[in-house]
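Record pair follows.
FIRST:
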Amino acid sequence: MPEISRFFGVIIAMYFNEHNPPHFHVRYNEHKAEIGIITLSLLAGSLPPRVMGLVIEWATIHQEELMADWELARLKANLNAIAPLE
């Protein structure tokens, strides 16, 4: 699962050739979650509220880049790194 960004202990990644809807995976300590790219909503798993807020803030800024990486992942192409939240 290629890592596309990392910030404040949060790891953002995508699998190649994943199922719809478009989404990305988040890992933070023992927590794991899937976040929809279009809706920016929690699809599976859980995150602490503060971390969820940071992830949604980051994803809002980078939504177009996330969709571009989603399309690359579907083609099993190299994904682009996305700037972390600062």
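SECOND:
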Amino acid sequence: MNQKINHSLQLILLDRDGVINEDSPDFIRSADQWQPIAGSIEAIVMLQQRYAVAICTNQSGIGRGHFDVATLHKMHEKMNRLVKASGGKPVDVFFCPHKPDAGCDCRKPKPGLLQTAMAAQHHSATDTLYVGDSEKDLLAANAAGCHGSLVLTGKGQQTRLTPAGQANERVAENLISLARALTEQHSDV
């Protein structure tokens, strides 16, 4: 990661598709299709050793009728089984089920989903980092007033070329490299 982050961080919020698991332009529609990116489960466990960790994800596949909430929960149960098997604890998931044109306050790039997660986790924006791979993620972090970090997995390479991606100075190759950088940084305090 190319910039140090405030040592007061206490909460790490993660986008899901493209950050933790492989993304698909046709949506991840089942637990079988949900496949972790190499090192992402280990990264979550590593982050949990020093920070509270939760997930904030747009899941418009629900609103579009591609899958239902029960199927989404099965995906997250699979993820949490992998996290537990690696020595971590289950991760809370906050999601927006709405289509892009729904006008809700929870769909990123609006800040509602991140604000809900921060309130539920009892942390403020100043001690929160949101990690994503899309311009919407970076804009949501900015709108919520928290720190933002871009990973280059998923849509990250393309996002790096956008105005929000170019303005963001915190970039990591993937979630595991970010977790290692934060852990090393934390131990320097």
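COMMENT: Residues 11-187 form a domain with the Rossmann fold fold (CATH 3.40.50.1000).
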